[in-house]
Design a protein that fits this description.
- The complex is a heterodimer of chains A (485) and B (139).
- By secondary structure, chain A is of the alpha+beta class.
- Chain A contains 17 helices and 19 strands.
- Chain A has a single domain, classed as tRNA-splicing ligase RtcB.
- In chain A, strands 7, 8, 9, 11, 15, 16, 18 and 19 form an 8-stranded mixed beta sheet that branches. Chain A has a 7-stranded mixed beta sheet with strand order 1-2-3-4-5-13-12, with helices on both faces. A two-stranded antiparallel sheet of chain A has the order 6-10.
- The two termini of chain A are 29 Å apart.
- In chain B, the strands form 2 sheets. In chain B, strands 1, 2, 6, 7 and 8 form a 5-stranded antiparallel beta sheet that branches. A 3-stranded antiparallel beta sheet of chain B has the order 3-5-4, covered by helices on one side.
- With 139 residues, chain B is an alpha+beta fold.
- Chain B has one domain: Archease, Possible Chaperone, Chain: A, domain 1, CATH 3.55.10.10.
- Chain B starts with a strand and ends with a strand.
- The longest helix of chain B has 19 residues.
- Classes of the chains: A alpha+beta (485), B alpha+beta (139).
- At the A-B interface, helix 8, helix 10, helix 14 and helix 16 of A face strand 1 and helix 2 of B.
């Protein structure tokens, strides 16, 4: 693929602008968060062209944003944020992605590394059996049509009512695990049929369960509020989304939006950016269906949380209370949300598309759970399975510059094919074992594709967002055991 | 056409380039490319048959709908297809019979889940050697 040779203006060491004049049709400039070294890698592909393309969307305000973990997606870049005015702007399913409310959830424990390490194989095996994962895996839950509608409307609340997880989990979940405005009527029977057997499954690809150990704490007070109190403490990170239901909702509405683009006379540089006015029937229907898929994902992570706790309890012979397995937070990183933000000094209702980006609200906002309100919203940033992950918090600067958003992970630098050619799954398992990381995967091919080498170093990504001030580092943890679907 | 399809590299996802002397062959090879991303097709038997009939606004959208229909059938029924007989393919309509086997974990060599075929950079081209299309999958 040819590299990107477009125009970039340096603002400071961490901010680069794509001027609005770069491409005729851009309604706003682009803004890229990266350091100079990362920019070199980013420019090897066409993701910055996609940042410029997103700036074509009717009603877009501020700038078309790119986080440092940006990489080439389809239509929208992954690691992109776009805010459109609800009054006259558009919503684009491509700005959310196929895996609606793909996201991460972090649980704490009272356990220390030395207690878990002797049992890590047993724990990983137990989790692998208890949490369905991999290609074509089916969940342990069966929902009929009526119950599916409840699940899609109530999300995490449905799961807790069914006995999966604790009511307290919901308090520390974005949107409390239940996005308002969900209307199951707007979700096609095909999507429901696809989602029914997959409820409560991890999936495959980059989805995972990770047993981690806290290695660094940068902000003691915020960490303490999250129940992260010491180096060596064991955490559990869950990464999954809305499975086939979300994929089908995206596909269904992309098709509807293709027609809408013509109907509303919208000029777009890429078919995959298909969109419709937020206030149109197509736009409203999509948001109602997207909310259902988001709720499906929260119910999914809620069920997986329950089974993960079960596995820990079984392996360590202790109750969940004794283990202190409380949820720290749960964030979505593929979602569109209606939020109020300041634009040129005025409060404006916007639709914030976060595709491979995380909400990062500052201290004081009512959307931030009470427990964290004096610190800021926890942001969970998973890295690749061989390196580490971060916990951060949202900042006022994010609110002012990025519509309260920051990065979502490491971001790929290598295609799956290249990763697989370079390394075999079995070698990767050995390499990780040498680092003290136990890994169990549904398929060796998918393991090879997820190798560390395929990703940017998440530490660099998080450093850029920290230095730029759009999120602040709280703690870092590295994996001890990994399950890949 | 010597090769039916090849796997393309795309940073976040994975793609295929499919070829065909005619569009029937092109659609067949694209479907074979899709299932070869999901499993090792050598071990799959032809014991299940499904008939599909789809229509779309144009041929490119039809190709994506065809692939997404196959992904849908896999998600719901777990069938891995390895052979396709396209009985009719005209501009915006396809009628085909698909042959394969229900996935058996442990027995079949499974590779990865494919979420969807995308419209990204989608274009069917034709030159004197035949048809070609690149399809990017979200995985």
């Amino acid at each position: 693929m040819p590299g990107w040779e477009g125009q970039l203006t340096k603002i400071d060491d961490y901010r680069w602008e794509i001027p609005q004049s770069y491409k005729s049709g851009m309604r706003v400039p682009g803004l890229v968060y990266a350091n100079e070294a990362m920019l070199g890698v980013i420019k090897q592909e066409q993701s910055l062209e996609q940042v410029a393309n997103v700036a074509f969307l009717p009603g877009i305000v501020g700038r078309s944003l790119a986080m440092p973990d940006i990489h080439w997606g389809y239509g929208f870049p992954i690691g992109g944020v776009a805010a459109t005015r609800v009054s006259d702007g558009v919503v684009s399913p491509g700005g959310v992605g196929y895996d609606i409310n793909c996201g991460v959830r972090l649980l704490r424990t009272n356990l220390n590394e030395d207690q878990v390490r002797p049992k890590i194989k047993e724990l990983i095996n137990n989790l692998f059996t208890n949490v369905p994962s991999g290609l074509g895996s089916e969940g342990k839950i069966r929902v009929n049509e009526k119950e599916m509608n409840e699940l899609l409307t109530n999300g995490g609340h449905w799961a807790v009512k069914r006995g999966f997880g604790l009511a307290e989990d919901l308090e520390v979940t974005e949107e409390t695990g239940q996005m308002r405005g969900a209307d199951p009527e707007k979700v096609s029977p095909r999507a429901k049929k696809r989602g029914a057997p997959q409820s409560g499954t991890l999936g495959s690809g980059n989805h995972f369960l990770e047993v981690q150990v806290v290695r660094e704490i940068y902000d003691q007070a915020s960490a303490r509020a999250m129940g992260i109190d010491r180096i060596g403490q064991v955490l559990l990170l869950i990464h999954t989304g809305s499975r086939g239901l979300g994929h089908q909702v995206c596909d269904d509405y992309l098709r509807i939006m293709e027609g809408a683009v013509t109907r509303y006379g919208i000029n777009l540089p890429d078919r995959q950016l298909a969109c419709a006015p937020i206030e149109s029937a197509e736009g409203k229907d999509y948001l109602a269906a997207m909310a259902c898929a988001a709720n499906y994902a929260w119910a999914n992570r809620q069920c997986i949380t329950h089974w993960s706790r079960e596995s820990f309890a079984r392996v360590f012979g202790k109750s969940i209370e004794q283990l202190g397995m409380e949820q720290i937070y749960d964030v979505a990183h593929n979602i569109a949300k209606i939020e109020e933000h300041n634009v040129d000094g005025n409060k404006v209702t916007l639709c914030i598309h976060r595709k491979g980006a995380t909400r990062a609200f500052p201290a004081g906002l009512t959307e931030v759970p009470q427990r964290y309100r004096e610190f800021g919203q926890p942001v969970l940033i998973p890295g690749d399975m061989g390196r580490c992950s971060y916990v951060a918090i949202g900042t006022d600067k994010a609110m002012a510059e990025t519509f309260g958003s920051t990065c979502h992970g490491a971001g790929r630098v290598q295609s799956r094919g290249a990763a697989k050619r370079a390394l075999r799954g079995t070698d990767i398992a050995k390499e990780l074992a040498a680092k003290g990381i136990t890994v169990k995967a549904g398929s060796m091919a998918s393991l090879a594709e997820e190798a560390s080498q395929a990703y940017k170093d998440v530490s660099q990504v998080v450093d850029v967002t920290h230095q730029a001030g759009i999120s602040r580092k709280v703690a870092m943890a590295s994996p001890m055991g990994v399950i890949k679907g | 056409m010597e090769k039916g399809f090849e796997v393309l590299d795309h940073t976040a996802d994975i793609g295929i380039a499919a070829y065909g002397a005619d569009t029937k062959q092109l659609f067949t090879n694209a479907a074979l490319g899709l299932f070869s991303l999901m499993a090792d097709l050598d071990g799959i038997q032809e014991v299940v048959q499904r008939e599909l009939k789809l229509s779309a606004d144009d041929e490119e959208v039809l190709l994506i709908e065809w692939l997404n229909e196959l992904i849908y059938i896999f998600d719901v029924e777990h069938i891995i297809f390895k052979r396709f007989e396209i009985d009719e393919l005209s501009g915006n309509q396809i009628r085909a019979r698909c042959f394969g086997e229900k996935m058996k974990p442990g027995q079949h060599k499974l590779k990865r889940e494919v979420k969807a075929a995308t419209y990204h950079m989608l274009r069917i081209t034709k030159d004197n050697r035949g048809y070609e299309v690149k399809v990017i999958f979200d995985i």
